Amino acid sequence: MSSNKEEMVNLQSLDSPKNGKGDPESSPVNASSEEDYNPHMHRQLAHATTNAETLVHLLKGSLGTGIMAMPQAFFNAGLISGTINTILIGVLCTYCLHVLVRSQYELCKRKRVPVLTYPESMKMALEVGPTCFRRFAPAAPIIIDVFMIVYQLGICCVYIVFVANNIKQICDAYMPELDIKLHMCILFLPLIGINCIRNLKLLAPFSTFANVITFVGMALILVYVLQDMKPVSELDMVGYLRNFPLFFGTTLFALEAVGVIIALENNMKTPASFGGYFGVLNIGMSVIIVLYVLMGALGYMRYGGDSKDSITLNLPQDEIMSQVVKVIFAIAIFISYGLQCYVPVELIWNTYIKKRVEGSEYKLVYEYILRVALVLATFILAIAIPRLSLFISLFGALCLSAMGIAFPAIMELCVAWPDKFGPYKWLLIKDVLLILFGLIGLVAGTYTSLVDIVKSFM
After folding, report:
1. Which of 125, 206, 350, 382 meets the CB 3.0–4.6 Å disulfide criterion with 160?
2. How far apart are CA 333 and CA 63, in angstroms?
3. Any idea what the Cα angle at residue 205 is, between residues 159 and 9, rounded to 5°?
């Protein structure tokens, strides 16, 4: 489930080329010896992962709330359109991740450092790219950090809404109905408590537990989904064009895992095995795409136009097994909240605050204030917009269209500048098209989600 995703995102976001790995700012570009330097051979990892462990992390990291929203995504796109486009988006995401990993590897060779974070890589790429891009290099790390923080906090908002909705359905079966916002308020203090755990290792056992029960819950969901499916004739094969940006944002949110991918590759014992036609990335993403297509198609065939923001909300309210499923996912996602919020806390604290309060006797107090403030921010946003599907679509389109599609293409374009674009400058043309596609997805998906959010208040 997504707990491993958060741990790996933390590694990517916060680890820099230290511990004897070199300083990217002080390492000069040495073109003559560039080909002699292999970054993979210079990595010093205390706990490197094997290929099998990396594959497991990749699979677990992509099975979060996004897959639960796929039936409604298929409702927005239609059965055939949803199937085809989920595969196409999955292939596109996988390709862009390859582009990002290759570009970072090339930059590591040029700078002669073993590993680079995403913000560092983008800054260095812009510095060697077209002149018009170079002015943005100093701001690149901040831009990447902002997108990462917004995305991670967006996931936290999704988690609050998800947990509250599932708890509400369980409680409504045994007591008078309460407003969803009251259930969110009940969660507020527990969320602060789990986010105030400063040591990630203390959360690791809970993370493992969450992963195990998540797979159990998914198996139980399939028991319901495979019963009484609707005739195909009652389903839309192709959805309305107006709803496609919602499908795009939801699917991108579910499939794209840019932070996980970089962290996994950076922490592998044999990183050369990550890429390639039969590498860890392609194998893992192939399995993930199949799972998402199956959950989306089967869920839509079971519930049709009644598909809700999360498939767990379609399960019967008065059956013990369905209540067990909802309890399972509520617990798993609640645990994952602490891990998800750990990433922006550490990113904001280490990058922007810690150095300013280093000598203060209230340093620990400031850190806890930050932790509580971030929980409060996600809580207020979740209270204001308690629509799970719109949250998922909004943050998928807003953040991942940029981080997962447009930015990798920009990085590759800069790395290939000025004369490594291949015959007929096909690489330049391809990257420009990817940048345009990412920007269109960002604008259209964000606009459609915001419009529907506004309409939800009317």
Report:
1. 382
2. 11
3. 55
Q: Where are the domains of the chain?
A: 2-399+442-456
Per-residue pLDDT of the chain (458 residues; tens, 9 = 90+): 444 444 444 444 444 444 444 444 444 444 445 567 777 676 776 667 788 877 877 776 667 777 888 999 999 999 999 999 999 999 998 999 899 988 988 898 888 888 888 888 899 999 998 988 999 999 999 999 888 888 888 888 888 988 999 999 899 888 888 888 899 999 999 999 988 887 766 766 777 787 788 888 888 998 888 888 888 888 889 988 888 888 888 888 777 667 667 767 777 888 888 887 888 889 988 988 998 999 999 999 999 888 888 898 888 888 889 999 999 989 888 888 877 787 788 888 888 888 888 888 888 899 999 999 999 999 998 888 767 677 778 877 888 888 888 999 999 999 998 888 888 889 999 999 999 999 998 898 888 888 887 877 77
Q: What is the DSSP string of 280-301?
A: HHHHHHHHHHHHHHHHHHHHHH
Cα(414)–Cα(62) distance, rounded to whole angstroms? Answer: 29
Backbone angles phi, psi at 59, to 5 degrees: -65, -45
Q: At the top level of CATH, which class does the domain 2-399+442-456 belong to? A: mainly alpha
Sorted by sequence, the CB contacts under 8 Å of residue 386 that are 6+ apart come out as 161, 164, 165, 180, 181, 184
SS3 assignment, position 49: strand
